[in-house]
Structures are given as C-alpha cells and as structure tokens.
Design brief:
- By secondary structure, the chain is α+β, with helices and mostly antiparallel strands.
- It has two domains: 3-137, no CATH class; 145-303, Alpha-Beta Plaits, CATH 3.30.70.
- 63% of the residues lie in helices and 11% in strands.
- The chain has helices at residues 3-6, 9-29, 40-63, 68-89, 101-107, 109-139, 157-174, 188-195, 197-213, 238-254, 282-303, and strands spanning 31-32, 93-94, 178-185, 220-225, 228-234, 270-276.
- The strands form two sheets. The protein has a four-stranded antiparallel β-sheet with strand order 4-5-3-6, with helices on both faces. It has a two-stranded antiparallel ribbon with strand order 1-2.
- Strand 4 (220-225) and strand 5 form a beta hairpin.
- The longest helix has 31 residues, at 109-139.
- It is elongated and about 95 Å long.
- The protein starts with a helix and ends with a helix.
- The structure holds guanosine-5'-triphosphate.
- Guanosine-5'-triphosphate is lined by residues 151, 184-189, 192, 197, 200-201, 204, 226-227, 297.
- Its EC number is 2.7.7.65.
- The chain crosses the membrane at residues 40-61, 68-85.
- It is an enzyme of class 2 (transferase).
- Keywords: Membrane, Transmembrane, Transmembrane helix.
- It comes from Azotobacter chroococcum NCIMB 8003.
Length: 304
Amino acid sequence: MPSLLRHHRLKLFAVLLAANLALLLHLAAGDPIPPRDWVLLDIFGEGGAALLALAWLGLVLKSRPAGRVTNLLTLGLGCVFFSWWTDCLDEFIRLPEQVHWDHWLESVPMPLGLLLLTYGLYHWHHEQLAISAQMEKRERLFREHLLFDKLTPLAGAGYLRRQLQLSLAESVREGQPLSLVAVDLDHFDAINQRFGHAEGDAVLQAVTQLLLLNLRRQDLLCRLAGDRFVILLPHTGEAQARQLAGEMALAVEHLAHKTRQHGERLPLSASVASAMALDEDAEQLLRRLNLALARAKQSLALSA
Ligand SMILES: Nc1nc2c(ncn2[C@@H]2O[C@H](COP(=O)(O)OP(=O)(O)OP(=O)(O)O)[C@@H](O)[C@H]2O)c(=O)[nH]1
C-alpha cells in the first residue's frame, strides 16, 4: 500500500464497510433481479458515477497527509460514493414496495456529502494559499509539477526559459529592468567524490534553502543543472543584481554545512555572475550570463 494511503486505512475501511453493509441490507430485504431485466444504461450511469467517486477518494487520500481538510474531503466523497452506490444497488436487487429506507439511504448522504465536500474544499483553498505563499520563490505564479526536480525541489532550465520569456515581455511593457544571477558551487565534484553522492545531494538541498532565504518575494530560483542555480530578478537593475550576487556568494561561504556521517564542516564557496537584460531575448541573455559565469570560474582557476 502506498505510504500516504497507509495513514488513511481506517477511513477507507469505513467507506468500504458502509458500502458492504448497504449491499447486505439490500440482499436481506430484496430479491436479485435477473440479468435480462437489468437496465444497462442506469447501471452504467449510476455504477460509473460511484466508481468515479471512489477513484476521486483514492486520489485525494493518496495525495494528502492526514488532517482536518482530508477528513472533510473523505467524509464528503464517502457520502457521495455511498449515495451513488446504493442508487446502483436497486438496479440489481428489487426491494418490496413497503420498504422505504432505501430512499433515505440514496437521498440523504448526497446533499450531506456535497456540503461536507464544499466545506472541505473551502479549507483546502485556504491551505493552498498558505502553501503557494511558501512556494512563491520557486514557481512565480505558475505551477507545473513535471518541471520540478524531486531533490531540491526547484524548477529546471525549461521552466526558467519560459518564465524568463514572460518576465522579459513584462519588463519591456512596464519599462522596468530585469536581471539574472547565476550561482555555481565550486569544486562540488570533489564533495561527491570524497563524501559520496548522498552528501552531495544534502549540500544541494542546504544551498537551495539558503538561497531561498536570501531572496525577495518576487524573485524566482531555478536549478539550471547539477550545482548551478539561476535567479530571475524582476524590477532589478545591474548594480542591485551584482550586489545580490555578492550576497549569495557570501551566504554560501558562511553556510556551516556538516556532513551527515562525521558531522564535519564542509567549506563551501560559489562563483557568481549577474547580467541585466538589454534589448535581447531569453536565449541571448542566458548566453551572456553563462559567459560571465565562465569568466568568474576562470579567475577562480587562475587564483587556485
Ligand atoms: N550529488 C549530486 N551530484 C550531482 C547532481 N547533479 C549533478 N551532480 C554532479 O555535480 C558535479 C558537477 O561537476 P562540475 O560541473 O565539474 O562542477 P564542480 O566540481 O563544482 O567544478 P567547478 O564548477 O568548475 O568548480 C558532477 O560530478 C555531477 O555528477 C545531483 O543531483 N546530486
């Protein structure tokens, strides 16, 4: 069972138990309808709707940690599923005329479920706003999970290019400057070699958090490749970008990252470069930034 689903075993069990009880109740009180009398359209419509509600429930449980919002969504979807399920049962089991409880089972859970679902979605909306505020510096008003790497988790080169094109157009429209800063860790390969890939991963995660802490709300941090990060800085001129780049380099130098195995401090440093957008497109600007970074790396090699 997938790990998140494991936390919701009880909820799933309760929904399936309720569905089973309804089935047993119908079987005890009524008679099976022979297949020749089945109304396939109704079975397809009501059964299909019940199955879809169950699939939604599975998706919600699989993607959410336990908590109040999840409970509300589960209860809501559980009621909706139950209502469609009992509606479908009377396509297979004929109940006597004098039986009325089946109408209650069909009709009451649906509005109740929809109310709970609405209340749950309302709280989900607030929860999402809080999460989006935390993710602001990683996504800049656009979410596409496929473009994010799982390690840091930051968006990559494709996402940066797309955002850069949009921001360049915006900066021309508004007559505002826009700059990029590149941050590339020095001798990162040596960390991988000496302490292992897992330690290298931990360094990348720590540096990501550090850079995010040092950014402003409107900035966007992306991981271009390996140990290279690029920051998109809207409303930022050349001097300010250079200053921010220097701050990032200083922050990395002062990061006291300890190895996981021996708790030994790893001395870290990063080469940085900045470029302000001139009258050029995203590719030209990125090329200029890469050239500036290559120059910074060259002077690092010469001074070693
Ligand atoms: N641990 C870890 N390593 C990675 C990841 N992605 C790329 N790398 C490694 O990062 C290293 C980058 O090497 P280089 O580009 O030579 O960078 P460097 O050692 O910092 O060299 P300079 O930039 O010239 O200072 C390579 O060894 C890659 O295998 C990752 O996700 N995790």
